[in-house]
Amino acid sequence: MTDRKHCFFKLLLFIPVILVFISGCGGLKESRSILPIREYEKMIVGDLYADYVGTENCLSACHEHDRIKHFFDASTMGVQLKKESGMPLVDCESCHGPGSLAIRDLTKELVEEKARQGIKVSCNFKTLIDLKNLPATAQSLICLKCHTANATFNLHNWNAGEHALNEVSCFACHDIHASPDLKVTPLASGRLCFSCHQTAQAQFSMPSHHPLKEGRVFCVDCHNAHGGFADQDLMQDNVKETCVQCHAEKRGPFLYEHADVAENCLNCHSSHGSVNNRLLKAREPFLCLQCHEGHRLDTERNALNPSISPLRASALYTRCTDCHSTIHGSDVPSAPGQGRFMQ
Hints:
Blueprint: H1 2-29, H2 37-45, H3 55-63, H4 67-74, H5 76-79, H6 92-96, H7 108-116, H8 136-147, H9 162-165, H10 186-194, H11 198-203, E1 208-209, H12 219-222, H13 239-243, E2 256-257, H14 259-263, E3 273-274, H15 286-289, H16 301-304, H17 310-316, E4 329-330
Antiparallel strand pairs: 1-3, 2-4
């Protein structure tokens, strides 16, 4: 009994220590800002003297009947201006910075009076963030401060993507004031991409090409413009996984695998377009001869087809795939019992 009491008193002594430890851990997990969040935003904007006045005050001062406002109200971001939407509040000052200095001395009554006189009043844009002249990285950061905090997973890899590394900003593709539709449609993505990727545009004009201009495939089917884990911002982890999204019959695994095909489709094919059939980088048999030794058909004509003479065979069989038809892989051995991709 004495031992039980002794243990009980020990436990009582440790309870305050445990409570202090738990409360201390909770304090460590909680992040507390030294200054109010608005002060941090002012520091980022670079103007410590301006204050946030709200969208209604900005629009009533000079933009109330602007065409830009109508487009913005109908857009995805404009919907978020409404508090009843339940979405994070987004307004003009989210991108342009605090606007108190921009509309200083401007009132709705003054604007309406000037409008009756035929005089258009505008705010002092010089006090706002000069978005167009910001570095590309800073332009993207303005967008990312909201778009990386939501469920837009395709933006989480932006900073590691080809566009970000080459200093291409969100502004190059998206204009939130242009129209209600802020997204680029797959059909329009080709024209947009070609404005920079002119080499790819020329490749899609070659005789053998993926049917992008015909509207059957799009750039965004293979590439993620917002960044990816693979090279060239591919949608999948590597080239082959991207290709077999459409060419599923080439996926495998096969009993007899063509090593180059299993490694990378681009060893033989040009992804956008080529002067050769089937997007091949070179014509047959020259493409195959880059890796394989040639062989005389007349010495193997009995194995191929005994009814064909050596002269006729040399005239007809100028392409390796005339015999090796299952070049991407096969589960069936050839006539001699070897894996030669013949059937």
